[in-house]
Design brief:
The chain is mostly helical. It has one domain: Rhomboid-like (Rhomboid-like fold). It has ten helices and four strands.
Length: 248
């Protein structure tokens, strides 16, 4: 099966669904406590190094859908609609949700091994950076097919990623480790899903092969789970529980 690049774009149904879930959970956080309260965030599933070390690994997923304050939610929602929307249109629904979850979990895992004791972390930014990384891979692979506009888009995406990562280093409240982990995972996932053999067709008739090949998603998930387990093992081995004073 082949997809023409001039075909009508897919509607980003998963992006809007995820954004809606984020808003609903933020409202619940506000109702049952406060979205900026560490205790409330812990109860809803935010990243906490001690709790994850204790075995609550599900927090690596739940933290992706939680946000700290209205501004955090607004910024990530806008970024998700823009970056995630384009990712879902280009990669398809199944590939997008795989990229989002894989990069989000890896971003959370990298955050876990670097976060300080007593500090909580939450947000979809790791997965959003994962979408950004997947877009960089997509336009890098197809830069010749899309011509000058494709190269400009690629350059713009790279600059956007560098600026946002630099911003994360300037402001300590930003969980830049999740951004870095998500972005690298996005580059890898995007390249894996979008890569295809060299085509001999004329550029004006270039068609994108179906990147939803059934064999690729299971392999991507397998590698993602393996990487996550490996990083978790490293984090658990490095963790020193005797220095922890849990705050609930």
């Amino acid at each position: 099966m082949r997809l023409n690049i001039t075909a009508p774009p897919r509607q980003p149904v998963f992006v809007y669904s995820i954004a809606s879930i984020n808003v609903i959970l933020w409202i619940l956080l506000e109702v049952y406590g406060n979205s900026t309260n560490p205790s409330s965030l812990r109860k809803f599933g935010a990243i906490d190094s001690y709790l994850i070390w204790s075995g609550e690994y599900w927090r690596l997923v739940s933290a992706i859908f939680l946000h700290v304050g209205a501004s955090h939610l607004a910024i990530n929602s806008i970024s998700l609609v823009i970056m995630g929307g384009l990712t879902e249109r280009l990669y398809g629904h199944r590939n997008f949700i795989s990229i989002f979850l894989v990069t989000g979990v890896i971003g959370s895992t990298v955050s876990y091994i670097n976060i300080e004791n007593g500090v909580v972390a939450a947000g979809a930014s790791g997965a959003i950076f994962g979408c950004l990384g997947s877009l960089v891979s997509f336009f890098y692979i197809r830069k010749k097919a899309f011509g000058k506009s494709g190269k400009q888009t690629l350059n713009g995406l790279i600059i956007l990623a560098l600026v946002n990562l630099a911003f994360g280093f300037v402001f300590p409240a930003v969980d830049n480790w999740a951004h870095i982990g998500g972005f690298i995972a996005g580059l890898s996932s995007g390249y894996f899903l979008a890569h295809h053999p060299r085509t001999t067709q004329p550029s004006h008739r270039f068609k994108i092969p179906d990147i939803g090949q059934k064999v690729r998603l299971p392999l991507l998930i397998f590698f993602a789970v393996s990487i996550t387990i490996s990083v978790l093992a490293i984090g658990n081995a490095m963790y020193e529980p005797t220095k922890v004073f849990p705050i609930f």
